[in-house]
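Task 17 of the worksheet. Students: predict the tertiary structure of the chain below and write it out as structure tokens. Keep your answer in the requested format; marks are given for formatting as well as content.
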Amino acid sequence: MFQEQKFNANGVEINFIQASTSGQPLVLLHGTASEWQSFSPLISIFAEKFKVFVLDLRGHGGSSWVSEKYRLFDYAEDIKYFLEKHIGQPCILYGHSLGAQIAIAVTS
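Model answer:
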């Protein structure tokens, strides 16, 4: 249904989908040991109003694995880079569990 894409965040390949093309950007971050598909029930609902992006965190789903570097701020740096280089405008950042902690770290 959705085409997965890759984005290079300083050497880490981040897997993501873009579910819609109009509206304010909404970026969804999943929890520990999960992947972007955990948001599947919500994506079509959000896509009616927002330009939805759903990411796999480093070491999860289709994103690349790296040796070490799995601290909260490592994840946050990936997301900051994605937001800066790929989104490039103010957006809504929503996270579940670990994703929520990352969202807080990104905005701090």
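Marker's comment: The chain has a mean pLDDT of 97. Residues 72 and 94 are 16 Å apart (CA to CA).
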